[in-house]
Amino acid sequence: MSSEGKNSSDLGHLRSRIDSLDSDLVRLLNERASISVNIGLAKQKAAKTGAPADEHIHRPSREKQIYDRLETLNHGPLPTAAVQAIFREVMSASISLQRETTIAFLGPRGTYTHEVAFKRFGDSVAYVAQDTIADVFDAVESGSVTYGVVPFENSRFGSVQATLDRFVVAAGSGTGPPGGEGKVQIRAEHYLPGFGQCQKYINQNLRGVEVVHVSSTAHAADIASRETGAAAICSSACADLYGLDIMDLSIEDAKDNTTRFFILGNASDSPSKDDRTLLSFTVDHRQPGALCDALSVLKLYDINLTKIDSRPSGQRPWHFFFFIEMTGHMENENVRKAIEDMKAYCLDIRVLGSYPSERASDAVV
């Protein structure tokens, strides 16, 4: 047999082997999907018997376990990121089989919030753009969507005030999903409108150019796609979505600029080995040291304070809600006891949710 004939024979054999593996993959994927469907049915059956309802369709702690296990199992040649991306879609499809799943995000299409939501939930769920952060909260609270995704904190510009203010509304009115807002922390690159993050580039390269502030980078891209002579600061994915040509890349002031996002739901995930809990509360501002007394409780229970914010309550002038993020899960014994003891110094204390901590190395990028 000629070398050409032998190569053709080898190629045919390899392609036949790929076809066989594809058949195995399809069979195994459907077997996995069937088990996922059975998990959903088991949840429904348990709820009918009066057992505590399992509200979770998306479990971030379980998802992280799967991704960590994939990293251990994978020995190439596929990079781990590629394997995890494949399984993201497998899990997305499994979620959609258990229940129709809809994700609200701060729109329009192409925002960083949209990009983060898609990277977390995949292509098999439905996405609904919302005009404001408050609208995302409203959609989750009304039950019209399964989850919502909102920005929470930027590493350079601090907390996203619109998100905190909507927490104030929920805390002050006592509204919201049963058991408080469920939170899942995500890390992702960027969020705030482009001008704030690219000021050095603008000053050096765009002097004299009219700068128009809009609600989001995606809105800017939409306008630039329809107006002659207009340009937008946005992500490359957003540029592709709106059919824009990319004129320059990596123009942000800080390359490590990072934003934390929350997934909003009607229940928090179960404890993992590394969690955070978010509380809101008020204190009697007339009582000297009231805030200090409340926070000192955390030290007694070996709990670290990782973040603190305050926002006007809207109830009366110079009255504030405090927000604290602390280590631990609300189901941990030391956290439960600390919250109970804090009630002696706090008014309107409310657990907004517990969620797995996301380190920078776990960033969604």
Global outline: globular
Round the Cα radius of gyration to an integer and report it. Answer: 24 Å
Fraction of residues in H or I helices: 40-55%
The string of secondary-structure elements, in order, is HHHEHEHEEHEHHHHEEHEEHE
What structural category arises from helix and sheet content? alpha+beta
Taking pLDDT < 50 over at least 5 consecutive residues as the criterion, the unreliable ranges are: 174-181, 187-192, 360-365
Query: What is the overall pLDDT average?
Result: 82
* Biggest sheet overview: 6 strands, mixed
CA-to-CA gap between the ends?
51 Å
Total strand segments: 10
Number of helices: 12
| Percent of residues in beta strands | 15-25%
Features of this protein?
single chain; 365 residues; alpha+beta; 6-stranded mixed β-sheet; 44% helix; globular
Task: Describe what this molecule looks like in 3D.
There is one protein chain. This protein has 365 residues and is α+β, with helices and mostly antiparallel strands. The protein is built from twelve helices and ten strands. Strands 1, 2, 3, 4, 5 and 6 form a six-stranded mixed beta sheet that branches. The protein has a four-stranded antiparallel beta sheet with strand order 8-9-7-10, sandwiched between helices. β3 and β4 (158-159) form a beta hairpin. α1 crosses α3 and α11 (290-300) packs antiparallel against α12. The longest helix is centred in the N-terminal third of the chain and has 46 residues, at 3-48. The protein is globular, with a radius of gyration of 24 Å. The N and C termini lie far apart (51 Å).
